[in-house]
Design brief:
The structure holds 3 protein chains of 3 kinds. Chain B is α/β, with parallel strands linked by helices. Chain B is built from 20 helices and 13 strands. Chain B has 2 domains: 169 residues, D-Maltodextrin-Binding Protein, domain 2; 191 residues, 3-Layer(aba) Sandwich (D-Maltodextrin-Binding Protein, domain 2). In chain B, β1, α2 and β2 form a beta-alpha-beta unit. The longest helix of chain B is centred in the first third of the chain and has 25 residues. In chain C, 69% of the residues lie in helices and 1% in strands. Classes of the chains: A mainly alpha, B alpha/beta, C mainly alpha.
């Protein structure tokens, strides 16, 4: 068995070349064509109307001014002034970009490798492995909003667990993990890691189980250390899973809205692009043009990893 | 093979259990749809059409005012025989959601505020004029209250409810015990704060997690240093934020910033108020509506306040920040007779007294209200407001909401944590927000 | 993504005799794993502990203390202050949303995987990419769109899609269909083509092929996806936040945002509310853990 076969299990599950026998549309009856058309058409319509057209509408709105009240005829043209405003004048914008970046780097450098490490260790036929897996995986079941609430109980300066352990809860020198601008981003990242590492662990473990054991054995017989086996043999053949994990890390970093919103609405050191979009959409101070300009920036930033990921995923299919 | 999906947890997915599970979820769906079909009200909630019921959206979510409102609603229901459905939403969420609320499915009557905030919703067309209601209740209010209920088009949009002063609150017994004297001048105030710090107290209890509480300190500093007229013009952006007068405000604030309770950006005002109640902190710039409702029993009885100290003798202590709370009628909510009748009821001294019988944090706006049941704190608040020459509402009620929420409140938070206020940035953001207003 | 599809089809429970040799693992691995596991459990254990203590005891002794007794009254207080309703709201949103999502996704997956279309791949890309976008990008247009879709007042008291369960259901469906389509199409592609051939020879219609041949074979994948989607939609915070205005109509995950406002200073009640929110997911976790993990690794593309 080649390395390739070991990690591309479609060769295991479905070795046959199926394409030639797949039904071509021409040969279908009219009823069948209609049924098939609806089966594809209705979901596509939903997807187009509720995801893609609104995305385009966000871009459109970013060139206008509107307080969101009344009908869209109240929109006046604003040219690129919303963009000049966010780039040059809006004090929260660049911090938000920076925080999104820190979020990404932290997940990529700390949380994701922690998940990979846990997976690699658990792959070593550890005793009680299922118990460990269950524990690490538990937070993945929780919403980020709820994680914000739970960690508030850990982080609170007056009654939180950490400050209580340090004996400074409620005292002037107590540490307010979510309120202190200089540390709340890191506190939130720890909370997010609690969930993210388990997520990565489970995906990576699934991938590791698929790696041909004989490869590892061969390496071990050659006297390779565990580290060498991992970096030289396992990691390279795990390429598809690595891509998935990288993309998930990027997407999670862009999607961390729920957590910061529940902590403090995405203000005071926890500004993120997604939270700024929402801050400009809700409240009395609606400024939909500015909100949409930020949404457009976020859209562009999100499309980069999405396109990379999809082109990798579907390249094979397309060349079929 | 596909049908042999297996899991990480070492066991194969048993086909039968999957089937059983699928069956169970099928039953769940069926019961949900039956439920929906039976109630015929899948979207939940009650519609007001056709019934003798109207809805009332309240942001009075703290326990004391919430209970007080329940008694007002009960009094109206008893008097008229109509029903009011009370929909209470947490204070901050209510404000955050107001635009969506008024355009979505608002209650007929909802709690709101006077000032720019009332005027902007009057102008938006999302609320209705209440001149008819005012022909019945007009006699209950003074001219200044009537003026505060009038929008730019000359029509009245607000039924005034209660008002309350912002001031510096403290514990009487703590002051007596330590021999502190109420400061009148700025230097008295800073000296007292320094003394409190020496005595191991938190001189100024402070919390700004909710973004708005810090505005009170700004308003008072600005009115004391630059006068009421300048404050109003600044709020309307007729004055620039980038000028020496504004810098002066933050220079003064910087003098007292070291006496503020630390970690304020992570603290809710309720916790800061509790520090006054527990006598851990000496003073707090806050509204009686907040601290008077938060502290109860002996802590409430021990509560007293004094005017924000004088800074510029030209302006003395004559301006008072006294927000007026009230009610508006939403356009989209059911505009029926009961809603109007309810508003007329709310605009009477009787209704206000019912409320203040339970909630001792505010005072009535009706001039004919019976004040004999007032607590000493309420009596003092009434005199305090009555003696003022100028009344301000509050930064987020006197200025453009978009500016207050998106520019000023974050800028104040950043000032609190860094001691720096970026006037140039605030001014250029103000230009963006106020354009076309 | 056939690679990830396949990895989970390796029987993971079986162990290899060579690596089975547990003695090769250094004890430090156990020390490390146990330390991480303990850290991992602390937040939930602390929440549970806090939720079981009377407020009077924690006020007197502090939260970091023992004693003062155990009580379930925090749970009943939280339950009676609206959590019962929030849970029902969550069910009314989650159940239909999961069913509709799986139905629509299986339709598209069936069409693209069992028939040769010109736009097969483009369609799949469209669906999958939609699933990966941060939802905040769409917030403004969706809100305005829903505001302007009229509904009769008998169906929606807002007269529009706002403040209804429908609006939240529709958005959850739109966001989740992409992922399910992706997983199911890979799954269906792996089914032998002869199945369809035989049916076609018998003259079975497209609908019958879908209904009677393909869908029954997809049950394991549907079961796994259903579990996963129940959790994800139950955990959705944003759409209800944006679209629902009436507090009593919020699903539980969004309603917990009000916990801090409602139970000011009472961490026991906040913890009890949090635990009530966790319990349904924990039940699913312990009962259907396998399906959940299978669903996750089946697609592995979820963002």
């Amino acid at each position: 068995m080649t390395v390739d076969q070991a990690v591309r299990p479609e060769t295991i599950t479905a070795p046959r070349e199926r394409r030639p026998t797949r039904k071509r549309l021409k040969t279908l009856s009219t009823t069948d064509k209609v049924v098939l058309g609806m089966m594809v058409g209705i979901p596509t319509l939903i997807e187009a109307c509720l995801i893609w057209l609104p995305s385009l509408a966000s871009i459109g709105l970013s060139f206008g001014r509107w307080d969101g009240i009344g009908s869209p005829t109240n929109i006046t043209s604003a040219g690129i002034s919303n963009y000049t405003y966010i780039f040059t004048n809006y004090p929260s914008f660049w911090p938000a970009v920076l925080h999104n970046l820190i979020w990404l780097v932290f997940l990529a450098v700390i949380a994701t490798p922690l998940g990979v490490l846990l997976a690699v260790l658990l792959d070593r036929k550890i005793r009680f492995t299922r118990i460990y897996q269950s524990i690490f995986f538990l937070p993945v079941m929780l919403s980020l909003a709820l994680i914000g609430i739970i960690w508030q109980l850990i982080y609170s300066s007056d009654n939180g667990l950490i400050d209580s352990l340090l004996g400074i809860a409620g005292k002037p020198q107590s540490i307010d993990f979510f309120g202190d601008k200089s540390i709340n981003l890191w506190a939130a990242l720890v909370a997010q890691t609690w969930r993210h590492a388990g997520y990565v662990m489970i995906l990576y473990l699934a991938g590791l189980k698929g790696v041909d054991l004989s490869l590892k054995e061969a390496a071990a017989l050659d006297g390779a250390t565990a580290w060498q086996t991992f970096t030289r043999i396992v990691f390279p053949v795990m390429k598809p899973i690595n891509t998935v994990v990288i993309v998930i890390t990027i997407i999670e970093a862009l999607r961390s809205f729920d957590l910061v919103y529940i902590i403090n609405g995405g203000t005071n050191g926890l500004e993120l692009l997604s939270a700024l979009v929402v801050r400009n959409l809700q409240g009395e101070g609606q400024d939909l043009g500015v909100g949409s300009a930020i949404a457009t920036v976020l859209l562009v930033l999100s499309l980069v990893p999405i396109i990379i990921y999809l082109s990798r995923t579907f390249r094979k299919d397309r060349t079929e | 093979m596909p049908e042999n999906r297996s899991s990480l947890f070492g066991a194969q997915v048993d086909r039968r259990s999957v089937l059983r599970y699928a069956g169970a979820s099928g039953i769940a769906v069926a019961s949900a749809s039956i439920l929906a079909a039976c109630t015929g009200n899948f979207s939940g909630g009650g519609s007001a059409t056709g019934s003798k019921t109207t809805t009332f959206g309240s942001n009075y979510s703290d326990p004391a005012p919430k209970a007080a409102f329940a008694s007002v609603v009960a009094a109206f229901q008893k008097q008229s025989g109509d029903k009011i459905k009370l929909n209470t939403v947490s204070h901050n969420d209510f404000q955050n959601n107001i635009n969506n609320y008024l355009q979505g499915s608002p209650d007929a009557v909802f709690t709101w505020f006077s000032g720019f905030r009332m005027k902007s919703y009057a102008k938006s067309g999302l609320t209705l004029p209440l001149d008819d209601v005012w022909t019945k209740i007009g006699g209950n209010f003074s001219d200044s209250i009537a003026k505060a209920s009038t929008a730019a088009d000359g029509k009245k949009y607000l039924v005034p409810w209660v008002t309350y002063p912002w001031a510096i609150f403290y514990s009487k017994s703590l002051f007596a015990e330590k021999g502190y004297e109420v400061p009148v001048k700025w230097t008295d105030f800073t000296t007292l704060a320094a003394q409190m710090k020496k005595d191991g107290l938190i001189p100024i209890a402070f919390a700004d997690k909710d973004l708005w509480p810090a505005c009170g300190t700004f308003d008072y500093l600005n009115m004391r240093i630059n006068g009421y007229k300048f404050h109003v013009d600044l709020m309307a952006h007729k004055e620039s934020w980038n000028q020496a007068k504004v810098k002066d405000v933050f220079d003064h604030w910087n003098e007292i910033l070291p006496y503020h309770q630390t970690g304020s950006l992570g603290r809710i005002w309720q916790d800061a108020a509790n520090a006054i109640g527990a006598k851990k902190a000496g003073m707090m710039v806050v509204g009686s509506d907040q601290i008077g409702a938060q502290l109860t029993g002996a802590q409430y009885d021990d509560l007293d306040f004094f005017a924000f100290p004088e800074i510029n003798p030209d302006f003395g202590q004559t301006a008072v920040e006294a927000p007026i709370d009230g009610f508006m009628l939403s356009k989209k909510g059911a505009n029926d007779k009961i809603a109007t009748a309810f508003l007329e009821f709310l605009g009477t001294a009787k209704a206000q007294q019912t409320y203040l019988g339970v909630n001792k944090a505010d005072i009535a706006t009706a001039k004919n209200a019976d004040t004999s049941g007032y607590t000493p704190l309420q009596k003092k608040a009434q005199t305090f407001i009555g003696a003022a020459t100028d009344l301000s509402q509050f930064l987020d009620r006197d200025s453009l909401p978009a500016f207050a929420a998106d520019v000023m409140e974050p800028a104040l938070q950043s000032f609190i944590s860094s001691g720096k206020f970026d006037m140039a940035s605030v001014e250029s953001q103000a230009k963006q927000k106020y354009q076309g207003v | 993504m056939s690679a990830t599809l396949g990895t989970s089809s390796v029987p993971l429970g079986t162990s290899n005799p060579i690596t089975r040799n547990k003695s090769r693992n250094s004890p430090w691995i156990y020390v490390f794993l146990t330390a991480v596991a303990v850290l991992w459990l602390i937040p939930l254990v602390w929440t549970l502990y806090t939720s079981l203590r009377p407020n009077a005891a924690t006020t007197r002794l502090g939260y970091f203390s023992v004693g003062g007794g155990v009580t379930f009254s925090n749970f009943s207080t939280a339950w009676n202050s609206g959590f019962a309703g929030y849970l029902l709201n969550s069910a009314l949103i989650t159940v239909p949303a999961v069913i509709i999502t799986l139905f629509l996704a299986s339709c598209v997956a069936f069409a693209v995987s069992r028939f040769a279309w010109k736009f097969n791949v483009s369609l799949l890309i469209l669906f999958t990419a939609g699933n990966l976008l941060p939802p905040q990008i769409l917030a403004t247009p969706i809100y305005q769109l829903f505001k302007n879709i009229p509904l009769p007042l008998t169906v929606s008291d807002s007269g529009s899609l706002l403040n209804t369960y429908y609006g939240v259901i529709v958005m959850n469906v739109a966001f989740q269909v992409g992922f399910c389509t992706f997983v199911l199409s890979n799954y269906m592609k792996a089914l032998p083509d002869e199945l369809g051939e035989a049916a076609r020879v018998d003259g079975a219609s497209v609908w019958r092929q879908y209904r009677s041949i393909i869908m029954p074979l997809c049950r394991p994948a549907l079961g796994a996806l259903a579990t996963l989607e129940v959790i994800w939609i139950y955990n959705d915070f944003f759409w209800a936040l944006l679209l629902v205005q009436t507090g009593s109509r919020l699903p539980i995950t969004t309603a917990i945002n009000n916990l801090k406002g409602e139970f000011v200073n009472n961490y026991n009640l906040i913890a009890a509310g949090a635990m009530i929110t966790v319990i349904p997911t924990l039940i699913i976790y312990f009962v259907l853990q396998r399906q959940f993990v299978a669903g996750l690794t089946l697609g592995a593309s979820k963002g």
